[in-house]
Amino acid sequence: MQTTSKKVITRDEWEKRLSDVKVRKQDMNKLVMNFLVTEGYVEAAEKFRMESGTEPEIDLATITDRMAVKKAVQSGNVEDAIEKVNDLNPEILDTNPQLFFHLQQQRLIELIRNGKVEEALEFAQEELAPRGEENRGFLEELERTVALLAFEDVNNCPVGDLLDISQRLKTASEVNAAILTSQSHEKDPKLPTLLKLLTWVQNQLDEKVSYPRINDFSTAMLEDPAV
Length: 227
Description:
InterPro entries: CRA_dom, CTLH/CRA, CTLH_C, LisH, Ubq-SigPath_Reg. This is Glucose-induced degradation protein 8. Residues 62-119 form the CTLH domain. By secondary structure, the protein is mainly alpha-helical. Helix content is 64%, strand content 4%. It has a domain at 59-184. Helix 2 (25-39) runs antiparallel to helix 3.
């Protein structure tokens, strides 16, 4: 059986190829600003604007409002979050029934978390059940949430993941994306997408050549190929 060895690209050759690719600093600055704005780092975005002269695509004041909504959800203050969203733009929830259901579902989860069983049942029946009748997906999510009430130890029950902090973060992320969309801004930052693309490209190259690759994206250091 004939085997073929991979072509080896040395560090010097690889770095020369990289240096031939010209990336404008202006484009890099826009990429950084896009990340700061989308993720809500308003103070860092303001400082970066002053230092680099890069203007954000949206008003930085709106970031503070958006982060207040996100923080409210992450803290379990869903009613406050809904009020803040409506203050920003009432059409966000009016035109996004799935988002509104998930916020109401999160309210139900918080009632159950706080041991307010009767209030939780009443809320589920009056606010969520009608929406479940209109949408089977909503009904399944509602049934799964109400199932929390059937267990004494909710933290170790089959649906206990709904009480994890990750559930709050998931809902907060959905709200954040909806607000960004309403502001005609991309809901996801470009930088993570580019890193995913870099990972994919490196995996494709691994099948054909040995080259200095980036294994740790936090340092972006090139590591010599194994020969």
